[in-house]
């Protein structure tokens, strides 16, 4: 698809969708309307804004540095894996009452959703993104060096997209799609839990020995959440004094 870009002086330049090298910002980015011919576009004296942002980055993503990957594994990836494992082990085992048990199940599915994105990225991991996520390929870039079983597990399973939609709609978005699940509100994720546990185990085993040693099976506190919980006294909405009782 061809478009026209205008810089701050109103000068026009050709651009082909997907081919812009560095996603520079222009004052106006516009597509041709369906009833227009490209050659007729320049007969308009003033550039028009059709309200569509078309600045699509094709910049290659720079993978995180090794020290960043190490820190992510030691703290945050360990935390996500451990929380998922603990919550999954409690699935279907009533312990703390209906509401609290439901919250544990929701927590389990939220951690599961994040780990699925780690192993099966929603976006091309070679393309730059504002989110700066880390992916399994950052730790293990050469898939051919992995065990065959791990390679097979990394192929997207047939259930992934449908389950991912369900996780998104029921946990992460306030959408009318939720009403579609009211007829069948029960989660039966045991098969998916097993699949994800195999992925986790294969991933940890495939890491270089020095990196694998950074995985902390006892990491249970996300540092950001820990800081949040100690900065505000529960139920009071005010900063906690260091002398306040716990």
In short:
The chain is mostly helical and 246 residues long. It has helices at 66-89, 98-119, 136-139, 148-154, 160-172, 190-206, 209-212, 223-231; strands at residues 2-6, 12-16, 28-31.
Structural write-up:
The longest helix is centred in the N-terminal third of the chain and has 24 residues, at 66-89. By secondary structure, the protein is mainly α. It is built from 8 helices and 3 strands; from the N terminus they run E-E-E-H-H-H-H-H-H-H-H. Helix 1 runs antiparallel to helix 2 and helix 2 packs across helix 5 (160-172). It has a 3-stranded antiparallel sheet with strand order 2-1-3, with no helix packed on it.
Chart the SSEs and their pairings.
Blueprint: E1 2-6, E2 12-16, E3 28-31, H1 66-89, H2 98-119, H3 136-139, H4 148-154, H5 160-172, H6 190-206, H7 209-212, H8 223-231
Antiparallel strand pairs: 1-2, 1-3
Quaternary structure classification: single chain
The overall number of domains is 2
Mean pLDDT: 76
Low-confidence stretches: 1-57, 230-246
**What's the Cα radius of gyration?**
24 Å
Instruction: Say how many strands there are.
Output: 3
Overall geometry comes to globular
Give me the strand/helix succession. Answer: EEEHHHHHHHH
Largest sheet: 3 strands, antiparallel
Tally of alpha and pi helices: 8
Helix content: 40-55%
Q: Separation of termini? A: 61 Å
Structural class comes to: mainly alpha
> Looking across the biggest beta sheet, what order are the strands in?
2-1-3
Please report which band the strand proportion falls in: under 5%, 5-15%, 15-25%, 25-35%, 35-45% or over 45%: 5-15%
